[in-house]
Amino acid sequence: MKIHTRVLIFISCLLMLSAGFLPLWHILLDAPQYPEGLEMKIWLNGLSGNVAQINGLNHYIGMKFISVDDFKEFKILPFVFGGLTLLGFAAALAKSRKLLWAWFIGLCLFAIVGFGDFYMWEYNYGHRLNPHAAIKVEGMNYQPPLFGYKQLLNFTAGSLPDTGGILAGLGGLLIVAALFYKPQLSSNKIK
Amino acid sequence: MKFSPYNKLLVSALALLAGSTISGCKPGKVGSAVDADAAKKVYVAPGKYDEVYAFLSGGFSGQVAAYGIPSGRLLKVIPVFSQNPENGYGYSEETKPMLNTSHGFVPWDDSHHPELSKTNGEDDGRWLFINGNNTPRIARINLATFKTVEILELPNIGGNHASPFCTENTEYVVGNTRFSEPLDNSNGDVPINSYKKNFKGAVSFVKVDKDNGAMKLAFQLIVPPFNYDLAHAGKGPSHDWIFFTCYNTEQANTLLEVNASQRDKDFIMAVNWKKAEELIAAGKGAKITAKYAHNVYNENTHTATSVIETGTQTLDVTKFPGLVYYLPCPKSPHGVDVTPDGEYMAASGKLAAVIPVFSFKKMLAAIDKKQYDGMIESVLPVLKYEAVLHGEVKKPGLGPLHTEFDGKGYAYTTMFVSSEVVKWKIDNLEIIDRIPSYYSPGHLSIVGGDSKKPFGKYLLSLNKITKDRYLPTGPELAQACQLIDITGNKMKLLLDFPTIGEPHYAQMIPAEKIVKNQVKFFKLEDNKNAYVTKSEKDTRVVRKGNRVDVYMTAIRSHLAPDNIEGIKIGDEVYIHVTNLEQDWDVPHGFAIKGANNAELLVMPGETCTLKWVPGLAGIVPFYCTDFCSALHQEMQGYFRVSPAGSNVPIKFSIGENPVTQ
User: Fold this and answer.
1) Is B37 exposed, middle or buried (0-12, 13-18, 19+ CB in 10 A)?
2) Which residues, in sequence order, are bridge partners of residue B358?
3) pTM here?
4) Residue B186 CB contacts under 8 Å (≥ 6 apart), including other chains
């Protein structure tokens, strides 16, 4: 394993690590009465932001209250992600391309399962509404977008990666680079 | 009859003559004073903020009003000395103690002079003090919450008018008496015409804690029985001194209109407060009994408590040389105002033909050289007028009342009688400009105009008479103020707007100094109210004898519990409403049909209590009065009131619905 590959892996691991201490994703809500906007930040191990306010508003449409305790994910995710990052370090230290591939595939699976899970939560929150809710709009569901923006009654809901998510994404790109990029080193010297 | 060309000419000539005569005998019309760009200068586009907060006293309304400048938009009326049914101030159990005094509950006062707290002589935007004139008090408003958080009564005085002006670092705010009267601990049952013998003045120095603003009556100086009108503390070189205007040095006790206007000169009383502080620290103060209320609103419990204090310390100024000197000042002075550099004191003799400007340096020199012009009460030196005078502003107008400064070397004085504001230069005392005021201004206010670093730009002329300025509203008209642009050499009228009560005086401050400290809502977790209900699960109704406590919560869009039974005639019901919201601008109101009380307006995270003594058996509705949400009209409930002695048990509930859990 070339030194530049190991450096790339190392940087990627650091990015992943820092992502563990930063919000990965956020959901934004804008409405005429909320020009300053409401946001909910999603971390590896929990939620932050205007969760109480969002719950307060959601009760009109009968959406289940969002509570960190309902998500087993927040207890598991830090270990899974931590384990994966360790795998990355191991790959760099052992100079093992096999471990590198394992890490890469692990991360890909993590991302796929993660987004799938996120979608399912969004689907359930948006569709399983209390039948006694004060506001009922025929045919309306309140599932936030997986990525991008969507209009939900008076709110514009946005779903976008946060700092941690962007860093983790960059880390992923570095791994791809580590796997496939072979620099033409010192071509001048060969001359 | 046919009009000949000649007739037509004659008629139009007569009309022209009549018109010119009418306009000719009314000089100083509005049009001439209004800045051509006024509309542009005062227009604050929707959604944009004003540049400056103006805090106007409400005068006889007892409150303070916050306006945005330059738009003149009313932002909030802050209840201070008067009950305010609009939000329950002075009606709720938590705030009733704020209006307690040694005379019991006093639901009103006359609030005159707002004073921003100062650090290094500059407005710091932390607190606003204001005096209660009638039942002598000083209130402190927290400018992070715009709530009155402390009211201190002052003993031994009547008419707390020369108040609550503060020293350079808000070490003290002062209170001084308009009415001298016998001290509270003496026998006050004396003939009124024994004034000179039995009546005294008392200058109160209220210590302000520099961290939390808490007030304490530190000491009172016992002074001759004059009427004390206004005050201003020194700054910079004059830091240790504070100046009070005195009128009625004739010591009249009847028909003051005439009897207190006889002498050519009254006084500015210069007090060395630093020296007084040292004397008190050295134990020279005499402890006397005095009864006065000290009311504190605790921001964690959202509850006020009132304590009756029982004593204070006094210094008889006649026994301590060097504490007090008198500067002769023409004719019943009103304002005494210290220039930003602390070097000059401009005094406004309201019946005088000049504005005398005193020099602090010369005052110290005159004290040093003992340049006296007699004594008051045999021992208090009156300094020689010529020895302390910097100069006189000649022919400023009629009825000078109050002066502030722009920080560029100019002073601006209101002229009550000639109804104008006059701009003059401090160094050569020359008049630069004058602008009419509509009508009869008392005080004026410049942004930071009494501080060490005036911000300038805007001047408010605070007027007593409105007459024809707005659409008429019957005999009782709003009072008003005018906004004047003072950026140029010539003053320009920008705006004219009506105010609440009497805009007696105002203080203005750049908005950013206030905005940065704003509290948006109270944290529920920090709410230490004795009757807080932090979750709907904890709502309950508890009977103890004939006292019933209802622990109620409010959240969009229901009050819990909303069905309450078992209340009986003869009960005293206390409804403690906690607003569970934790978001900006979601207050909930609470009102009960037929309650002999006001409503509550409960801020997010706050608990307020309404006392209700039901008078009739039956079903009594209650509801949220603040349009809080789309389902506000559904935010309601019922009490069932049964006759005295009935055996209906206490029962409370709210409909089961997981949506609201």
Assistant:
1) exposed
2) B345, B389
3) 0.89
4) B198
DSSP assignment of B172-219 = EEEEEEEE-B--TTS---S-GGGHHHH-BEEEEEEEE-TTT--EEEEE
Q: Where are the beta strands (DSSP E) in B3-103?
A: 52-57, 64-69, 73-78, 100-101
Q: Is B478 exposed, middle or buried (0-12, 13-18, 19+ CB in 10 A)?
A: middle
Write the CA distances from B28 to B24, B53, B472, integer angstroms: 10, 30, 22
- Give the mean model confidence (pLDDT) for residues B550-578: 97
- Helices and strands (DSSP H and E) totals, chain B: 9, 45
Q: Which CATH class is domain B527-660?
A: mainly beta
Q: Which two tokens stand for residue B83?
A: 């009950």
Is B535 at the interface with chain A, CB within 8 A?
no
Q: How far apart are CA B57 and CA B442, in angstroms?
A: 12
For chain A, the structural domain boundaries read: 25-162
- Cross-chain Cβ contact B659/A59 below 8 Å: yes
Task: Give residue-wise pLDDT tens across range B340-384.
Answer: 999 999 998 888 889 999 999 999 999 999 999 999 999 999 999
B583 vs A56, A65, A133: nearest CB: A56
The C-alpha angle with vertex B163 and arms to B74 and B132, in degrees rounded to 5, equals 60
What does the domain layout of chain B look like in residue ranges?
A: 54-515, 527-660
CATH number of B54-515: 2.130.10.10
In the DSSP assignment, the letter for residue B524 is G
Pairing status of strand B215-223 against strand B303-316? parallel
The shortest C-alpha distance from A130 to chain B (Å) reads 7
Q: Given the structure tokens 């005293």, which residue do they identify?
A: B572
Which chain B residues contact residue A56 at CB under 8 A? Answer: 555-556, 581, 583
A73-78 long-range contacts, CB within 8 A, separation 24+: A73/A117, A74/A43, A74/A44, A74/A45, A74/A46, A75/A45, A77/A44, A77/A45, A78/A20, A78/A44, A78/A45
Rounded average pLDDT over B319-330: 96
**Number of residues assigned to chain B:** 661
CB contact at 8 A, B553 and B562:
no
Contact A134 B582 (CB under 8 A): no
Closest approach of A154 to chain B, Cα-based (Å)? 12
Greater confidence, A97 or B610?
B610
Cα B522 to Cα B534: distance, rounded to the nearest angstrom: 13
Rounded (5°) CA angle B194-B197-B200: 105
Pair type for strands B572-579 and B547-555: parallel
**Phi-psi bin for B284: left (phi > 0), alpha (psi -120 to 50), beta?**
alpha
E strand spans, B317-449 = 324-330, 333-338, 344-349, 354-359, 372-376, 380-383, 389-394, 400-405, 410-415, 420-425, 431-436, 441-446
Contacts of B46 in chain A (CB under 8 A): none
Strand partners, B591: B623
- C-alpha to C-alpha distance for B78 and B96, rounded to whole angstroms: 15
How many residues in total does chain A contain? 191
Q: Position of tokens 């301590």?
A: B320
Assess whether the previous peptide bond of B614 is cis (omega < 30° from 0).
no
The pair of structure tokens assigned to B640 is: 């069932």
Alpha helices in A34-191 (DSSP H): 51-58, 73-94, 97-127, 163-180, 187-190
B560 touches chain A (CB under 8 A): no
Q: Does B534 touch chain A (CB under 8 A)?
A: no
CB B303 within 8 A of CB B297: yes
Nearest CB to A132; choose among B582, B629, B657 = B657
Tell me the average pLDDT of chain B.
93
| A135:B630 CB<8 A | yes
Residue with tokens 């009547």: B158
Q: What is the pLDDT of residues B189-246, one digit of tens each?
A: 999 999 999 999 999 999 999 999 999 999 999 999 999 999 999 999 999 999 999 9
